[in-house]
Amino acid sequence: MNEPSNQSDMAAPALGTANERFKQSFSSWFWGSITAATALHFAVIAFWPQMEAPDVSLNVDEMEVVPPPPDVDIPPPPEAIRRPATPVISETSIDEDLTIETTTFETWTSEELPPPPEEAETTDLSQAPQFVVHTVRPRLLNDPEVKRTLEREYPALLKDAGIGGTTEVHLFINEEGLVKNQLIKVTSGHAGLDAAALKVVTVAKFSPAMNRDKAVAVWVSMDITFEAN
Asked: Is domain 139-226 annotated with CATH 2.60.260.20?
């Protein structure tokens, strides 16, 4: 029973000796680590590529000196507006005997009256295009007949030559819707086509223009187009 105690007593000095050896070697390990770290830093600094900061300086262009504007003579202020003159009541003597003659139907005469205005001459509405008040425009009633007449009146020489055009015609339409006068408003550029257009519109029949509930004679415009095939 005495043997275990003897073994523990023998192990205690050995453990104490290892601890003392570690304490004694600490100083060499510490300074060795410091030396290695210092050498590593010097190696990194010596062999590491040098780093340069980018140029962040500002380039400021020289400002152009603008000469000051020339001196301007300021005109003097305008004169003050004069106040209006104060009205003064004048002393005027009025003749108290001044009277106006009384006029009655018995004493009034028409001998000095101006002559009556002359009656205006009635103008013929159908002679020249002019505006007439109307609420409903005329409407073409026989479009197929107008087209057949257009084909018939188309000058053969111009048609065979491939010459066409549009003539705008002024039409005077009476209260019954009949064409009573026709004038060239815009020429087609060919006298033959203009003459044919005036013949075509003579067969046109319209519904009369209305001014509310009353039929009226009016001027209208109509395009006559000749197209060569």
From this structure: no
